[in-house]
Write a structure and sequence with these properties.
The chain contains 5 helices and 5 strands. The protein is an alpha/beta fold. The protein has a single domain, classed as HybD-like (Rossmann fold), CATH 3.40.50.1450. The chain has a 5-stranded mixed sheet with strand order 2-1-3-5-4, covered by helices on one side. Strand 1, helix 1 and strand 2 form a beta-alpha-beta unit. Helix 1 packs across helix 4. The radius of gyration is 17 Å and the shape is globular. The two termini are 30 Å apart.
Length: 183
């Protein structure tokens, strides 16, 4: 079970929207630790909720259309108050909500974005976005190291870990039974 799950996503065939894909490789090199897992996805689908449920903290990395081009933003993500409806594509908050609904797990979550310039068809990042990739990678790396150092200081006992694991198994069994019975 990774302590930190980094979910870098976007469309690598839509210019700056591929920033998540590009930075994922750099993060895999920088954060080659057993406590860290890096996923590279085109979009957030309901299936991602299961991976989120196994992590203590999730960091979503994506391009953004909001803000000044090249701006790196970091913000917390919380699940929506209402029940998440299944759709073709989900936001970070919605996939986090699904992890809570389906698996009884709500990991701490953040979204780190880099504001893009060009989202047209193409496989190259714009110059302004490419120039800010090191800052995006450094922001995610710093956040990950802060999380890991904080979790090492407050690591749960083996008894607490086993109790949490039993609770997750119970919730999965309960959800499966509800699903099979149509309730």
């Amino acid at each position: 079970m990774p302590r930190v799950l980094i979910v870098a996503y976007g469309n690598p065939l839509r210019s700056d929207d591929g920033v998540g894909w590009v930075v994922a490789e750099e993060l895999r090199r920088r954060l080659a630790l057993p406590e860290v897992e890096v996923l590279r996805l085109q979009q957030l689908l309901p299936e991602v909720a299961e991976s989120l449920s196994r992590a203590e903290t999730v960091i979503f990395v994506d391009a953004s259309c909001e803000g000044e081009v090249g701006e790196v933003r970091r913000q917390p993500v919380t699940p929506p108050a209402a029940k998440v409806q299944f759709t073709h594509q989900l936001s970070p908050a919605e996939v986090l909500g699904l992890a809570s609904q389906l698996y009884g797990a709500t990991p701490q979550a953040f979204c780190v974005t880099l504001t893009g310039h060009c989202f047209e068809h193409g496989e190259e990042l714009s110059e302004s976005v490419a120039a800010r990739l090191p800052d995006l990678a450094a922001t995610v790396e710093q956040l990950t190291k802060q999380i890991l150092s904080a979790s090492l200081a407050s690591s749960p006992s083996s008894h607490e870990v086993e109790a949490a694991s039993r609770t997750r198994r119970h919730l999965r069994t309960h959800n499966n039974l509800l699903h099979k019975s149509g309730g």
